[in-house]
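Researcher: Here's the sequence for the chain we discussed earlier.
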Amino acid sequence: MKKISFLFLAMFAGIVAFSQSSTPKKVNLSKRDADHFVFQIASNFWNGAPDSVTTFAKKINRSANVYVMYDMPFKTNPKFSVALGIGIGTSAMYFKKMETKIGSTNKTLPFIRTDTGFNYKKYKLATSYIEIPLEFRFMSKPEDPNKSFKIALGVKGGLLLNAHTKAKNLQTATGAKVNGNTIKETSKSYFNSSKIAITGRIGYGPISLFGAYNVTNMFKDAVAADTKLVQIGISFSGL
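Model: Thanks. This is the structure I predict for it:
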């Protein structure tokens, strides 16, 4: 958490530095669209999850987010703007020789090791949220976003739409194939229905590196460890 806080503070300091070193001037924004799509490819991490769980998670846990956002430049200095949007955010954790029974009636969410018996070659826990992102942005050349250095800090709130597990290709402990069936289980009972995350991105033109840290717990109190989703990835956006 300290490293993440330091990163966001460094990005904020960068925005301040650019604002102090640049003199506002009148620019022509007539050719710049106010609304635009944001598409993000991310790798997911669970901050706070115990080693007994993360040991069985794969190193790269891919997912994607997509938003429609409306950009509102400041009249006093169009290098700065505020953007509000709506979209879908997803996350996925891929496990090797571990299952999580989200449809269970236990008081706590079961994470079950399967390394000594039958297990699934492919197994993931996925969630999707409807999200509302809000960003405070800096753009070095507001009249030409495709040739502009960009920094953005923000926050987003989300409501849980779906949580499910997907298991595929049952095999023995030694890796011999048993069958190629796909098993899917859907339940939101162990998950908090809403979330809040702080976000940041830095880049040039339409491509940026982005990060998002959930300040709220992914799971309900007492059903699992205090687990917060972290996303790091690449963002594609016109603004």
